Fold this protein.
Amino acid sequence: MSGKHIELFLVDGIPGGITTAEIAGWTGHVLSGPRTDIADILRRDEAERNGAYLLLGDDADAIGGVRGYIGRTETFTRRFKDHQLKKDWWDRVVLVTAKDDGFNEGHWGYLEARLVELATSAQRITLDNTQSPVPRKLSEAQRSDMEAFLANLHIILPVLGINAIRQRPAAKPTIDPTPIESPVFTISQPKTGIEARGIVDGDEFVVLEGSRVVAAWTRTGTSDSTKRAYEAYGAAHAKLVADGSVVVDGKIGRLTRDVPFTSPSTAGSIVLGRSCNGRVSWLWEGGTFATWADRDLDGSTT
């Protein structure tokens, strides 16, 4: 697998502030920043370029706890005035432009439509877009250029902590033909009918659509630390039920989408309704998750 040289620049030297991101040899340029810094963002050159953008904000009722809007504009400075009046929920903006201004309105219209399509299929955020944009008609060569541009966005946006368009590995466009492929892991509890499947995707463990999970988290714990952990698991499970990611039928819940977690243990705990060591509870044909994760430590390959 080839590496990627990504250059991040903290404009004010503050983590979480205005940040620019580029990939070596790529014509694209990404700027991310909080709404509290919008005055400084609007004074930058990027705000006056053609491009696409994302507005993102925390929302407890949204899928993944994030609400978003995707658009395109000839100048974000003018577009912002409209969003300032009509959209009060967002707290972070991401501007996607080209360093050489080599793309026209048709290119950005195509990218906008593809970003909305990918965010809709990824089901990681709730989109505030009321209409799905129609892709602009581009030549075969132009479409190829934009798909290559988009492939780099798949890499750079998660580096900035933005997973809105992040797809399952099998469906994710890639410009690297040899990614590390995860096996499909399973975890089950036959007496209760629980049976789930999951895969590793970068820094996430993704439980797959159709998995059968516990209908509700009911454990409370005894010690203070256990109580806090169980409350967090219970809240996470309840959130999945509330946003429709888990549909409950009696004592079993079924995932209606792929759901990412920060670790196999967190995933296993949500699935089983109890504390779980995911490294030993998730299984594949070669053994446990730990066996796969540690596969190269002794020099062997799987």
